[in-house]
Amino acid sequence: MRVLFITSTRIGDAVLSTGLLDHLMHAHPTARFTIACGRVAEGVFARMPNLERLIPIEKKRYGLHWLGLWATVATTRWDLVVDLRGSAIAWLLPARRRAVMRGGRRPGHRLLHLAQTLGITPAPRPVAWFGAAEAARAATLIPPGPPVLALGPTANWVRKVWPADRFLTLARLLTQPGGALDGARIAVLGGPGAQERAMAQPVLDALPGAIDLVGALDLPEAAAVLSRCALFVGNDSGLMHLSAATGTATIGLFGPTPASEYAPVGARALAVLAKGPPGNAPMGALTASHVAAEATTLLARPEAVAA
User: Domains along the chain?
Assistant: First the structure.
C-alpha cells in the first residue's frame, strides 16, 4: 500500500497531523508513506517509520508549488491520498481513495478537524519520532541528574511571547526549595535564526547556568531532548506541540491566539490562558504565579510524575 500524505508548511500543524499518520501505520503496517510538507516542518517526519519519501513544498507565486508537487507524484498510482491542505491535487492524481480536508476556519480544535478528514473518532493524539542518534545526543545534552525544566520563550509572532521576566519568576517559583521542581536544572529551547535568539537572550542572560539549546537542535533532536525533560513551559509554538507529542508534561501559554483551536494535545498537556477575551488577550495579563500553580497541579497528577 502506498500513501501520499500532504500536510502543513508550519511545524505546529505538522505535529498535530502525526496522529493521523500513526493511526494509518497501525491500520496498515506494511504501507509506505510519502510525505509532502513545508521545508521547515520536514524534521517532524524525518524519523517516522515506513517513510518512503519526504517532499518539501516551497511556496511559489500563483500556486506553482502545487504544479511542482503534482509533477513529482503524478506518475505513481496511490492507494490513498490524504490532503490536509484542502487543495485540488488529490483529484488530479491516480488514487484508489482520497481524503481531503475541508478548508476555512471553523469551531473546535484543529485535531478534531484533522481526524474528521479520515472519519476517525476519537481523534488520535500526535506522536513524536526520533532515532537512536538523536537519543544519544540528547543524553549528552541532558545527562542523568536532577529533573529539567524546559522553557520555550520564543514564537513566530511577537504578540504570542510571554514577557521574559515572567519566565524568570516562574523558573524561580518552580525550582526553589519546596517548589514543584525543587533543584531542577533549566534548559532554554528555541529555533534557529537571529529573531529566535533575540527573544530567548533575556532569559538566558538572567539564567547563566541554563542549558542553552536555542538554535542548536533539529526537530528530531528537539523531540529527543524534550522527552528527557520533566516539564516544558512555552509560548504557543511548534515547539510546544512537539513537547506535548513526546509525552512530556507540557504547558502552553496563550493570549492572542485561540487555545480552543491550538491548545497542546497529549496525555500530559495543558493550555494556560491569559486573562481577557479568549484568543485576544495580552500575554502580559498572564502571571507567573498562576502558571506556577497550574504547573504544580499538572505535575502532581499520577500520570505526570517527573522522570
Answer: 2-118 (3.40.50.2000), 132-304 (3.40.50.2000)
Cβ atoms of 236 and 155 closer than 8 Å? yes
DSSP β-bridge partners for residue 81:
4, 98
Terminal CA-CA length for the chain? 39
Which amino acid does the sequence have at 267? A
Taking the C-alpha atoms of residue 20 and residue 120, their distance in angstroms, rounded to an integer, is 9
Instruction: Pull the grid cell for residue 135.
Output: 537519543
Helix (H) or strand (E) holding 272: strand 269-273
- Residue 87 and residue 24: Cα distance in Å, rounded? 21
Q: Are strands 2-6 and 32-38 parallel, antiparallel or unpaired?
A: parallel
Percent helix, percent strand, percent coil in the chain, to nearest 5: 40, 20, 40
Assess contact for 273 and 257: CB atoms under 8 A.
no
pTM confidence score: 0.96
Per-residue pLDDT of the chain (307 residues; tens, 9 = 90+): 999 999 999 999 999 999 999 999 999 999 999 999 999 999 999 999 999 999 999 888 878 899 999 999 999 999 999 999 999 999 999 999 999 998 777 889 999 999 999 999 999 999 999 999 999 999 999 999 999 999 999 999 999 999 999 999 999 999 999 999 999 999 999 999 999 999 999 999 999 999 999 999 999 999 999 999 999 999 999 999 999 999 999 999 999 999 999 999 999 999 999 999 999 999 999 999 999 999 999 999 876 443 3
Decide: 1 and 81 in contact? Cβ < 8 Å.
no
Sheet holding 185-190, edge to edge: 211-214, 185-190, 148-152, 231-235, 249-254, 269-273
**C-beta atoms surrounding 134 within 10 Å:** 23
